Amino acid sequence: FVNRNQENVGATAAEYFLSRGYRNFAFVGTPLIKAAEWCERRLDGFRSRLKKEGLDSTAFNASTREVSSDFDMESTELTEWLKSLPPQTALYAAWDRRALQVMGLCLDAGISVPGSIYILGTDNDEVLCESFSPSLSSISLDGRNAGILCAQLLDAHMQKRKVEPLVDLAFPRVVTRQSTDEMQVPDR
């Protein structure tokens, strides 16, 4: 059994933002009313890490299933929610495509990225992350090393050696690009 520890991915996002001095936090997950389990687990890890520092975050949820299934309607609600966030909010999006949707809405609404909102995605899809201006910071999940570990487990299993389940394939590291590249200092 091989699985990625999604809580670890979310905690990595929180740790990154904390290390850069942010104090306002937000999360945007899947566009569905009931998010996918992996997305909920990333949110749980994000919130859990922030809670250890006595901090909280807000998460976007569409008002109805109908709104969540229609991007035009959802984007209206999401834009209003983005406008309501305090200045210098660190926003973690569950994956890169969603982060770029959020960034596009911010730019269309005149919300500066970075500046007012700092956006971090997940997957580090280099083509997507570099195709936008500003470029998108993202958590790289190191698929190469995860693949090597999976192959080693399979090889051991095929040779009838005892194989312990591997639960955490996340080797997350943040690739900083322009969307978060501004250190926050609490004392002006």
Summarize the structure.
This protein is of the alpha/beta class. It contains seven helices and six strands, in the order αβαβααβαβαβαβ.
Overview of the structural elements:
With 188 residues, this protein is an alpha/beta fold. 44% of the residues lie in helices and 13% in strands. The chain contains 7 helices and 6 strands; from the N terminus they run αβαβααβαβαβαβ. The protein has helices spanning 6-19, 37-51, 65-68, 71-84, 96-108, 126-131, 143-158, and strands at residues 24-28, 58-59, 89-93, 117-122, 137-140, 173-175. The longest helix is centred in the last third of the chain and has 16 residues, at 143-158. It is globular and about 60 Å long. It starts with 5 loop residues before the first helix and ends in a 13-residue tail after the last strand.
What's the SSE blueprint?
Layout: H1 6-19, E1 24-28, H2 37-51, E2 58-59, H3 65-68, H4 71-84, E3 89-93, H5 96-108, E4 117-122, H6 126-131, E5 137-140, H7 143-158, E6 173-175
Parallel strand pairs: 1-2, 1-3, 3-4, 4-5
Antiparallel strand pairs: 5-6
Helix pairs in contact: 1-2
Q: Which structural category fits the helices and strands?
A: alpha/beta
Please estimate the helix content.
40-55%
Beta content comes to 5-15%
Termini gap = 50 Å
The biggest sheet, with number of strands, parallel, antiparallel or mixed sense and barrel status, is: 6 strands, mixed
Q: Give the SSE string.
A: HEHEHHEHEHEHE
Overall 3D form: globular
Order of strands across the widest beta sheet? 2-1-3-4-5-6
- How many whole angstroms does the radius of gyration measure? 18 Å
How many alpha or pi helices? 7
Question: Uncertain regions: pLDDT < 50 for 5+ in a row?
Answer: none
Q: Estimate the mean pLDDT confidence.
A: 86
E-strand count = 6
